[in-house]
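Backbone-to-sequence.
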């Protein structure tokens, strides 16, 4: 963060839709093709939305089955990834129990093992 204070590094929280390489520079563009930043180097470009996936269609299910949620809006599940009677979750929905690994292939394997072992 010292480099940010010194003006040597800029941190931006934006959604990049495309990047164009021309004349030794990378132009990062938003959804309207407006140039967000033009640079010679990108140190890190990553991110994700920090909201529960499928929230639009899951909300009525959560309410009708009285499913428990943490303050952050993610499911509170058991160690076996059970969210409700006969309802198990994997992927991002299992993240509070499994951690960040839940979102990748290794996490899917571990989730499957947990669920199968609990049946």
């Amino acid at each position: 963060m010292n480099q940010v204070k010194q003006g040597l590094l800029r941190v931006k929280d934006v959604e990049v839709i495309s990047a164009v390489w021309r004349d030794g520079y990378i132009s990062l563009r938003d959804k309207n093709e407006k140039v967000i930043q033009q640079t010679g180097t990108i140190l890190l470009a990553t991110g994700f939305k920090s909201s529960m996936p499928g929230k639009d269609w899951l909300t009525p299910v959560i309410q009708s089955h009285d499913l428990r949620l943490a303050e952050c809006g993610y499911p509170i599940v058991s160690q076996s990834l059970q969210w409700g009677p006969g309802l198990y979750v994997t992927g991002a929905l299992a993240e509070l129990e499994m951690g960040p690994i839940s979102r990748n292939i290794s996490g899917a394997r571990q989730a499957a093992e947990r669920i199968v072992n609990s049946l």
